């Protein structure tokens, strides 16, 4: 198995990317890690070259670049070259911690959409209170979605949960403003009816965003605008609550300060949980395209590589190609 | 000033409603509190009848009732009677902790929409880390909104923030999937352009839901579907984080347990903050219609009554009627 890696993408590239590869290649011994980027810089952090190929590239996409234009204007960038490797069949999947927009555009234009998938989507596995986690999509690849898009997201998410996360008959739910089937925008109500009629999906109905962290569903489907807003609300609230706790303890009585010092390690582990989701998969394409967080550490890159490995190993993209080809739309 | 109160609506009615009136009437001495409901039950909790009128009603709306049908089928319910009092000019505003759907329907059908307001919206003042708070709308009165609806929400929210909360030139922001003006659904992009061209609104551009709790804006505008999802995500995340902290402390080492006991009072005050927003105002109607949370305690009812008092006192609804009448749409 070959995984193409954009070694120059992300806030701490290539250091954290290469260090993540150092960690992952100890476990994933059947993988060839193709590192696209500046050879000299990559070698500085690489422990050894076993199962590693370094492919020299001369350009780097930064966050000021127009994400659509770079596909043509920066053809020798580490990101575009890594995605191109998948297109050419030289790699089975691609990982980048670089520009989300550029990766989505490159994925769509080079790896290409699965036939009959109306829209690809961005999906992450988010943590739940019971530790089981859930997959949520679309997190912002789209800004407007029809009922048919939502139905396709449900299929993409269910295949991922079953094949990559090993969940039998994953429970699929649809974000709405109430649990009753009468609730929702016209697109959500129509998607509800379509999903209810499908036998291949374990559709459990509508879910409110209040309940997703409780583990009430394995796959949570939303339009890209709403999904993006929900994800960022969860992030902002977690970060806000931790800041409040910190300042409450800091400005509190001596008793509170001592208590704060004693619970601090436990609270720190909670904060880790919030960021442990790994990469965001761009699903609905013919091969796995995964985005790691821009500020990923080495362990997060390794975690994203484990995820990519599972996606290739389970052939989830191939199974989705078959599913959609055999559908009578 | 006369405030009509649905004494029978809510999980702990009439007890908490009447106890809230007991608290509020000590401060708001120029208000007549009209309590609609079961006279005997109301009198059980009422401290004294000064500035209070009790209006006997025979029906109560419960959460199984169809919210649209009850306006006609339960005309003698405490909720419908209280809203009708505003319609007839017997009261200046109405407060209920009962069914949101029934209150929205009764407000729309009886109090009526301000002329030229395309859609009314549900708005709450939510807490920020700096204690200043922000107003967010629409929280779910609508499930789909056009650019014009969003523009009207911005005007409604800005008038409220300025007149009721006393904020000069409130900063108004639009929820989108990125801060840049190029981001958003077609409706959001169009609303962005319309708001940018308006001189009477201090429009500061797009905001991501991640940043709203930081106090980056005084008024946050979203379509009802997204606003509802954001509000419920914040609620669910807050409640989830507190549950996690509780179980981490409970299952932690002795050191963590002792620390937990010491910080518990400080953490409890944080939790209060999460629920201190008061009532949700149904804005865009000709008079104030406010919904208190179903499980409100006496202090929350008193807080909602202070809010209703300020809305009537500042004549925010009258000012909005004038604003929209004088607009050239």
From TrEMBL, chains A, B:
Gene3D superfamilies attached to this UniProt entry: Isopropylmalate Dehydrogenase
Location(s), subcellular: Cytoplasm
Catalytic activity, EC: 2.3.1.274
The protein's enzyme class: transferase
InterPro entries in UniProt: FA_synthesis (IPR003664), Phospholipid_synth_PlsX-like (IPR012281)
GO cellular component annotations of the record: cytoplasm
GO biological process, one term: phospholipid biosynthetic process
Superkingdom, natural source: Bacteria
Keyword annotations of the record: Acyltransferase, Cytoplasm, Lipid biosynthesis, Lipid metabolism, Phospholipid biosynthesis, Phospholipid metabolism, Transferase
Record's catalysed reaction(s): a fatty acyl-[ACP] + phosphate = an acyl phosphate + holo-[ACP]
A GO term for molecular function: phosphate:acyl-[acyl carrier protein] acyltransferase activity
Main subcellular location: cytoplasm
Pathway stated in the Swiss-Prot or TrEMBL entry: Lipid metabolism; phospholipid metabolism
Pfam families tied to this protein: FA_synthesis (PF02504)
Function in brief: Catalyzes the reversible formation of acyl-phosphate (acyl-PO(4)) from acyl-[acyl-carrier-protein] (acyl-ACP). This enzyme utilizes acyl-ACP as fatty acyl donor, but not acyl-CoA.
Quaternary structure, from the entry: Homodimer. Probably interacts with PlsY.
PANTHER family to which the protein is assigned, alphabetical: FATTY ACID/PHOSPHOLIPID SYNTHESIS PROTEIN PLSX, PHOSPHATE ACYLTRANSFERASE
UniProt family annotation: Belongs to the PlsX family.
Protein name from the UniProt record: Phosphate acyltransferase
Annotated source species: Lactococcus taiwanensis
Encoding gene (name): plsX
